[in-house]
Structure formats: structure tokens, C-alpha cells
Amino acid sequence: MNIRTALRPLAPLSLLLLVACAPAPIYKAAPGTTVAAAPAEVAHSPEQYGNGSVIWGGSVVGVHNFPDHTEMEILAYPLDSSQRPKPNAQGLGRFIAVFPGYLEAFNYPNGALVTLTGQLSGSRAGTVDQAVYTYPLVSVAQSHRWTADELRQGHPNISFGVGVGVGIH
């Protein structure tokens, strides 16, 4: 019996253990009212999505404070099963998250990863560099800025290959 045959029965158990390590989603989707479309799709026909709820996340592009609210421009990415943005994936378009009151921009530097839930509240024309762009607007109900530790959580530091190695992250 070779080692591959001996380890085969352990494969399903290993997969179960890896899945059990992944954190649960932080927000619950409201059945029937949560929009499954990406920001780029919503930007093309915002009237089709009305005031639907969204759970979107991505990378902070910029934070702009106004007298009564803060706007955060975000480059959206797909979310994993724990609703963490996957920044190595293809971007899904940009959107503007509108927060009531003041947010300290220092706490949301460019490139910080966030996930939020909120309600679509129309769209606004703007520019990305010199290109005209339509931004969906989201009135934020809840938001979460991901820390490096949270992004690593549920991603085991195990690798398989020829030989033995130890990695420290």
C-alpha cells in the first residue's frame, strides 16, 4: 500500500476541518431584497435596482468629509464566504459609500479593505482619472474594516509539496 492510498480516506476529513476554520459571514442577506448585482452592473442601470439592499466590499480609494456626511470611494471586489474582499480577483466596479457624520480618513487609508451593508440610493456621474464614470451610491447601515489578522483567519498556513518546510507568517 502506498502513502497516497493510505491517506485517501483522510481527504474528506481534512476538507471539513479547513471549512470549519473559516469565519462566518458578518452580515446576513435579507431574502428577496438584497441585490446580487455587482456595482458595475448597478451603475449601467441604477433604476432597475431601486433602493435594494447590498452587501459589498472592496478597497478604499479615497475618503471625503462634508459638513454632515462622509463619502468613501471603494473599488469593489468579490467577497469570500466570510464576506472578506478578495483583492487579487478582478475588480467589480466602483461605488460611493455614504456614511452619516464624520469618519476619520486616517482610519481608512487608501487600500484598506472594507465590507459594508446598506441601501442603494441612486447614482452620481463622476470621473476616474479622465474617464466619465457612474457611481452607485450606498447609504451605509453597517461597515467593517478588515485587519490583517482577520484577513488571514481561516486561511491555514499549511502547504503541501515535496519535502518538509516550515513557514512563519
TrEMBL record:
Signal sequence, renumbered to the chain: 1-29
InterPro entries: OMP_Slp
UniProt key word Hydrolase: no
Keywords, in A-Z order: Signal
Superkingdom in the source lineage: Bacteria
Pfam families per record: Slp
The protein, known as: Membrane protein
